[in-house]
Amino acid sequence: MSSILTNNSAMVALQTLRGINSNLETVQSEISTGKKVATAKDNAAIWAISTVMSTDVESFNQITDSLNKGSSTVGVARAASEQVTSLLQDMKELIVSAQEDLNADDRSKIQTDIDAKRTAISNIINAAQFNGQNLLKGTDSVSILASLDRGSDGTVSATSITVERKDLQTSAAVDAADKEATDAGYVSTEDTATENDVDKTAGTAGTITSSDTDGTISDAATATLTIKGGTVAVGDVFAFTVGGEDISVTAVDGDNTNTIAAKLRAAIDAAGVTNLDTAGGDDGDDPATDDATVTLIADGGDITFATTSISTTYVQSVIEDGEAADVTIAGGTLTAGDTFTVSADGNDYTYTAVDGDTNNEVAAGLKALLDDAGITDLDVTVTEADDPATDAATLTLSADGSDVEVNLGALASQNAAIAAGGLGAIADLSVETSADATTALNTIEALLDTSISAATAFGSAQTQIEGQGEFVQTLIDSMTSGIGAMVDADIEAASAKLQALQVQQQLGVQALSIANSNPQTLLSLFR
Predict the structure, then answer these.
(1) Where is pLDDT greater, at 275 or 307?
(2) Does residue 10 contact residue 515 with C-beta atoms inside 8 Å?
(3) Are the CB atoms for 318 and 403 separated by under 8 Å?
(4) For a surface tag, which of 11, 91, 379, 466 has the fewest beta carbons within 10 Å of its beta carbon?
């Protein structure tokens, strides 16, 4: 049946042409983009997988850069440690030659060569850095990003290669020492505190008790004085009277209960008390915990010994109610590990500087320690330095409500101890005498072992890093190939398909044209 209202042939031709045009558009997109899955609408699942893998590839490219930088950093350290080893071997040859019986002039010439090589080693170590990292200084480890591990649940974790620093610095050890008045961070005060002699609490560390009870040491009898084990503070006074002679010892820096007992025995003997035999007694095994004793032996008659005369006192410094003391902390560059001490309420409060601290942080740290201690009626305020590099910060200690024990004489500040470098013993290498040369031979062997171990460790680390770099590059290539297999278009197939679709398009257009002309033939029926 023919109809002038519905042209079925035209509709079929149009649908066919639409399908051909759609396929043609798809093929043209593949050819222009080079991808069969260019957007999520092309294939959502494949697009999602390939996109995740593509981001991983970009991440691994960054990891490759990290590994290359890490390999270079470790390579510099390895080359430097190998060069240091070579110079140490040269030094060993010089030291071996100094084992002979040489005159002073020859030894001096060898020493000059040793000193020159020591300077060269120091210069190499200081210069052995890459991108600001020097693996021959310090002890902290360095982490180098090596991989990204993606779990089956989609979680991602980073994996690193850890390279230990090998300290080959030639600096000698520096002991902790009290700061001088010209040093940065020097703690001082121009104010004074009132000093009072105060009895120690009975039974506390460093107090004296006696076995005598009646005030007399009978002939041939023994009285024992016990000094309680524990910390003895500078300025503690230990005193008593025996046979009419006053015996007194004041503790100095470094004293403990054993040294105090020894000084008391010496003082007793020096007093020449009538009928008193040589003082005896025992030291404690550990003066920090064990008691020491002093024995008084009567020989030839009774000896008066008033136990009420026994005293153990300490000097207490106080800031009187309403008064204040300013403690200044000098400006300048501080070193991590520097310590700063303020004594209050019978206790020392010490702040230890960390990297980057200035005197302002030190003052704030001391204030925090004192505030946390909750010392009754002690008010602490800080006046910061305008320029910590040059100006002093001030810690003000005020008594508000009653006298407050503050020992201004115990203010202290110390420069941090500095450990010797890994090759620190090189500073003492000497062949000036035969004995020095013998010592130097043993020392150089230990130094060589240190540098060889460092070079070996860096060599192993560099090999590991380079191996990981090769793996990551292979992984990138494999992932890139896999992504391409999923999303890249087959251009040869697309080209052939394009030509076929173009022919189909032409035929479709022709078929539609024919279908559209069919109604015109119906007019002939009405002529």
Answers:
(1) 275
(2) yes
(3) yes
(4) 11
